[in-house]
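HUMAN: Would you supply a protein with fold tokens?

ASSISTANT:
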Amino acid sequence: MGNVLVIDGHPDPASLTAHLATSYAAGAAASATSLVLRDLDFDLTLRTGYRTPQVLEPDLARAQALLEWADHVAVFTPLWWGSVPALLKGFFDRTLERGWAFRYKDNGMPEGLLAGRTGRLAVTSDSPRWYLPLVGDSTVKQVRGRTMEFCGIKPTRLTRYADVRGRTEEQLATWIRDAADLGAADAARPGRPDRPGHPDVVRPEPAAA
């Protein structure tokens, strides 16, 4: 079984995105840890880019430890203005630090430092599925291609929940139930043998000889 980190990037706990993330994590069961960004305490703004260091708040330090622990990273986000909520974008900006999540090699090419992990991007949208590729599918390109896979989390599979406005309550409930099956399937994939332990688990000190 692989360790699954579920990142809920929606500011509203009553949103469809939040319900999908919760159900997915429940399906992954004991293999999963949820990182609910609206519950974290951190500055969304990367104040000077990478020109000067910006100390990570404790919640972001734990987030990095969870990313190191994870075999599979699932990001749940709505599509807002062709992008993602400021909450999720700020989390990426602050947490995925240069030299930790990625680096540039001597030839100038980027290298993802979170390699060895798979991913899933789940996107909710009011826009219908057929419309999004016509306008560039910018949220998927940004999060899957230029963020997750850029940092080495690949392959990152895509799950769409489109035309949300046009769905009945029964259809939405089916999506939420099905998300649990998706979480169970992702958790069933094997994990890395050398992964670090969960940051919240305190291990006893070894006994003296």
Remarks:
- The two ends are 34 Å apart (CA to CA).
